[in-house]
Amino acid sequence: MTAGFLPGGEEEYLVRGRKYKGCCDRREGRGAVPTITLERVKQDPHVDTYLSCSDACLGAIGYTEHGYRHANLVARIAQNIMLRLGYSDREAELAAIAGYLHDIGNMVSRHGHGQTGALLAWHLLTRMGMPPEEVAVVVSAIGCHDPEDVGQPVHNVAAALILADKADVHRSRVRNPDVSSFDIHDRVNYAVKHSFLWVDDKERAITLQLEIDTEISPVMDYFEIFLTRMIMCRRAASFLGCDFGLSINDVKLL
Length: 254
Description:
Elements: E1 2-5, E2 11-14, E3 25-26, E4 34-35, H1 38-43, H2 45-60, H3 68-84, H4 89-101, H5 113-128, H6 132-143, H7 156-166, H8 184-191, E5 192-200, E6 205-212, H9 219-239, E7 243-248, E8 251-252
Parallel strand pairs: 6-7
Antiparallel strand pairs: 1-2, 1-5, 3-4, 5-6, 7-8
Helix pairs in contact: 3-4, 3-7, 4-6, 4-7, 5-6, 6-7, 7-9
């Protein structure tokens, strides 16, 4: 499985040659409840508004892109991680939903956005009719993804979300058009020309592969701001029974 994106933000996904698309169906039998899918979540006007507002709020304070591009990318990478490692289609779908919703708490505040996002997701998914046992999985994954709290992989979906979220480092996320005024976060993201999350199900290894323009940002700058995130990724991969690796410019660093 490969899950990542190409320079310019173009996404590329391949999972055993299959494409996965969400749909909204109903379970058989009396008292059937809706099966909430990623596509159903995307169609909800409240979700759309919250995601758009969250990205606008972060843009107003100078943060990188956290909107539709990031949400869609994290959703698909999280789903693909689960599928490649042999988890069920439904568990993979819940990972996708968690990935799409994980940053909506930024509408309230950047600080503690994992916890506020979890509460917002609880309300949204409960209103849609998702069973409480599935809501619990999505909500706990969102609540545990925030690096400010050194998020922990409390279950498989949470582990996949952490890995997918932290893999999204790319120049297309930088909003600031003035290169001369870049802070370290802008500089590091802008320096990344290619990012790819490689999942080897046979070797049980997950590797983040980056291509960085070192004339824009030295490799040490990456570690300065992302060390905590790499520790989270190592814990998440371990929870899934995998080793985590980091490769920058074809040099294995972890």
